[in-house]
Amino acid sequence: MAYPTDRKYTKEHEWIQANGTSASIGITDYAQQSLGDIVFVELPKVGAELSGGKTFGTVESVKAVSDLFAPASGTVTAANGDLATSPEKVNQDPHGSWMIKMDLKDPSELNALLSAADYEKFVAEEAGH
Amino acid sequence: MKRSTPKATRHVNQNEGLIFEKSSPGKAAWKLPPLDVPEVDTAKLLGSAERKDLGHMPEVSEIEIIRHFTRLSTWNYAIDLGMYPLGSCTMKYNPRVNEAVARVEGIANGHPYQPEKISQGALQIIKTLSEILIEITGLDAITLQPAAGAHGELTGLLIIRAYHKSQGKPRKKILIPDSAHGTNPATAAMAGYSVENLKSNALGMVDVASLELQMNEDVAALMLTNPNTLGVFEQEIHKIADILHAKGGLLYMDGANMNALVGKVRPGDFGVDLMHLNLHKTFSTPHGGGGPGSGPVAVRKVLEPFLPKPVVVTKPDGTLGFDYQRPQSIGRVRAFYGNFGMFVRALAYIQANGPDGLRQTTEDAVLNANYIRKGLEGSYDLPYATPTMHEVVFSDKLQAKKGVRTMDIAKRLIDYGFHPYTTAFPLIVPGALMIEPTESESKEEMDLFVDAMKSIAAEVEEEPQTVLDAPYSTRVSRLDETAAARKPVLRWSPNV
What we know:
The complex is a heterodimer.
Chain A: E1 8-9, E2 14-19, E3 22-27, H1 29-35, E4 38-42, E5 49-50, E6 55-61, E7 65-69, E8 74-79, H2 82-85, H3 88-92, E9 100-104, H4 116-127
Antiparallel strand pairs in A: 1-2, 2-3, 3-9, 4-6, 5-8, 6-7, 8-9
Chain B: H1 42-46, H2 62-74, H3 96-102, H4 105-108, H5 120-137, E1 141-143, H6 149-166, E2 173-177, H7 183-190, E3 194-198, H8 208-214, E4 219-225, H9 237-246, E5 250-255, E6 274-277, E7 297-299, E8 311-314, E9 320-323, H10 340-376, E10 392-395, H11 397-400, H12 406-415, E11 422-423, E12 432-435, H13 443-462, H14 464-468, H15 481-486
Parallel strand pairs in B: 2-3, 2-4, 4-5, 5-6
Antiparallel strand pairs in B: 1-7, 6-7, 8-9, 10-12, 11-12
């Protein structure tokens, strides 16, 4: 799957799509593939303060529970309630299934993240291990 | 064409219905004698709390109950049936001598409320086992209270917290390598610490340079499993300990893999400040449902005041007793003194083997893991070539090309008569196959296992679908684990 170029990526396999100071966050196709069938997504409440690089939730698959890392700092404005009843959406459409929306504290934090091309290169190396 | 065989009764390999489905009204497995005490008015005594309707209870005869549960029990796979190569779990044989000793009348019938003066034997067992485990770990003091490994971890971290607090410098963080047991970060969070991940290097060991960067005065301790979950010994353990100690941090060792070290090296000698042991792994007491577990925590002298209380001490008159006067203790972590029956079994195992025997079990455990590594190298991808200790981790990289993953291979292994190895752990190896034979297995049994694994690798090449649809020999074939996790049915209900 091609990684959309309208967003940035983290080495922890989250994507973040920003529009001014607001942003949507989800996990990448590579992440959902390595996790396997996702059975539960735990997300923060609206209003929660996130700091970049720290965990903000967990995603559970039949294989393991993994932490979700905030790509940037800010305040949560929405959590995708659909995923509580249909976690499989993350497997089916990882780049379309946002997990949380947030108000960015400093949109320039995104400059340090990976572009689609860089992320693709990064996962190719990781998968080749 | 295969003829179906009519059967008069259910065989143990076949499915067994629910006990509720066997119920027929009025049937009972009990009969009470006539009342020989004055009858009481329960409604008057209990008021609204009296229950007239017992709900839906199965009505079955005694033999139906016996058969039902005996049949269910035969569905278990056990170490007494065959090899149980579950990596990280150390499913070694539980020698019968342990059970014989645990059933000695005075030991089996001891009661925790017995006065100390008639509990001297039990206290002596606790004291002797404590001294032996201190010798094995190379540390200075120990508590036997914790009920299992993760409970030992929690006890250890509470001791770490109490220590730093006593120094006037409570700290915030625990460092944990990415190859750690999942219980480590969970324990740290339970103890109120934040967790910082430590990356492994290409050899599968802690990256000492990143540790140096991440270590600071906020770090309370590093939780390290050694050998780690890749079955790799942390060769720079001394340097790791020095880096922590230089900044006032403590080195906690998860002793789950101590069966690779007993009698060869002592954690206290390589810089560990405190650690837990799993008596139910390293020292052959029963596991899981056959437990309970037992997770003693051994510590360096400086941490002794914080051990859970009471502790067993020799009193001025020479008898043994419990000391509760421990003002800095983190308190009690388990009712009475922990899982005493496990102390008896572990002590029996240790004394039956003796020091040289224990050293031999360690050598055999490592030898067996390396025998399997050698046997399967080539057939399965070996992600880390670093020398293997007591367990070996392969990946499904070669088989993944045909669409077969570690879980599929594990399911197929059931058809060959073996319990599966550990799948998909450690997490730093994508598609991990983690195999731990322990010292219990003979060369013959391991040859059968290696043959089975090679045969599955060949099936993957020739006809991957055979592996993808396995198992075939079980009562039920491949279960839909995803549906079970997404839409769990947790309770039977008569209306379903």
